[in-house]
């Protein structure tokens, strides 16, 4: 890790915190116990990213598809999110900017107020920008962007011939943020699962097969960064 020069570090890391259910099952515990441990690991990894100077991290905390899970599991994940929101001041003091991406309109007013409070409190921080993806789906994000753009076009505010990639980007949740450089997914699954499908178009992927998210630590993150620093990114060029 110490050997990686700053310009070989990714600006934006996406993390799919996978394997919580299997981690718990292996220990004879209910699936939600894996999420509880996973939420602690999330805090540790975010702090580490902030410490080593990563500029943007997006974590996949709850997908639009996760509503298919059992009610107990859903309520535990939402409670973990709510607990994190209650610690808002601590993270703002640590200079971490927290933002929420996804369709948050489905959440109750109490959670929405806490989210708004944390976003406001941390908006003046200058360290890591953390996007927490909740009720997030990459396709739903694009549908939302298409609706907004179409609405502007119908109102005559935007010419259809003027719609280009930058217009689409400016209607995504990640407006003004750089694309994802590196996606890390532990647990042996080798897929994107509808995560940041536009933003990951040229991302590098590091799939870590031998580790489940609740056992993930700073050394695993550093190993992924080392792997990334050895990749030759060509963006379609020779
Ligand atoms: C995937 O593991 C993980 C999730 C669906 C939820 C991740 C959420 C957390 C770690 C808590 C987030 C909390 C905050 C504060 C951001 P899985 O259940 O699909 O695991 P499996 O593939 O082993 O079943």
What does this structure look like?
This protein has 238 residues and is an alpha/beta fold. It is built from eight helices and six strands. Strands 3-4-2-1-5-6 form a six-stranded parallel β-sheet, sandwiched between helices. It starts with 11 loop residues before the first strand and ends in an 8-residue tail after the last helix. The relative contact order is 0.19. The site of farnesyl diphosphate has 18 residues, from helix 1, helix 2, strand 2 and helix 3.
Short description:
By secondary structure, the chain is of the alpha/beta class. The protein has eight helices and six strands; from the N terminus they run βααβααβαβααββα. The longest helix is centred in the N-terminal third of the chain and has 21 residues, at 31-51.
Q: Which features does this protein show?
A:
single chain; 238 residues; alpha/beta; six-stranded parallel beta sheet; 8 helices; 6 strands; 15% strand; binds farnesyl diphosphate
Q: Main β-sheet: number of strands, strand sense, barrel status?
A: 6 strands, parallel
The unreliable regions are none
- In terms of DSSP E residues, the strand content is 15-25%
Radius of gyration: 18 Å
Task: Describe the SSE topology.
Blueprint: E1 12-16, H1 20-26, H2 31-51, E2 56-63, H3 71-86, H4 88-93, E3 97-101, H5 109-122, E4 129-136, H6 138-154, H7 165-169, E5 182-186, E6 204-208, H8 218-230
Parallel strand pairs: 1-2, 1-5, 2-4, 3-4, 5-6
Helix pairs in contact: 1-2, 2-3
The chain binds farnesyl diphosphate (FPP).
The site of farnesyl diphosphate has 18 residues, from α1, α2, β2 and α3.
């Amino acid at each position: 890790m110490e050997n990686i020069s700053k310009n070989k570090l990714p600006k934006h890391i996406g993390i799919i915190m996978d394997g919580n259910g299997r981690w718990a099952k292996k220990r004879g515990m209910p699936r939600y116990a894996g999420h509880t441990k996973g939420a602690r690991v999330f805090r540790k990894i975010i702090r580490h990213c902030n410490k080593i100077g990563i500029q943007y991290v997006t974590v996949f905390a709850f997908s639009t598809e996760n509503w298919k899970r059992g009610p107990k599991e859903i309520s535990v994940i939402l409670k973990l999110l709510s607990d994190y929101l209650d610690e808002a001041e601590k993270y703002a003091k640590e200079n971490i900017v927290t933002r929420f991406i996804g369709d948050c309109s489905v959440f109750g007013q109490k959670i929405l107020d806490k989210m708004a409070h944390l976003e406001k409190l941390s908006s003046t921080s200058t360290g890591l920008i953390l996007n927490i993806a909740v009720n997030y789906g990459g396709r739903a994000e694009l549908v939302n962007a298409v609706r907004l753009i179409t609405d502007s076009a119908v109102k005559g505010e935007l010419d259809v011939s003027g719609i280009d990639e930058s217009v689409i980007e400016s209607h995504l949740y990640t407006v003004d943020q750089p694309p994802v450089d590196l996606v890390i997914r532990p647990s042996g699954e080798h897929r994107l699962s509808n995560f940041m499908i536009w933003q990951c178009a040229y991302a590098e992927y590091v799939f870590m097969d031998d580790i489940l998210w609740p056992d993930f630590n700073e050394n695993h993150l550093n190993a992924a960064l080392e792997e990334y620093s050895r990749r030759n990114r060509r963006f379609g060029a020779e």
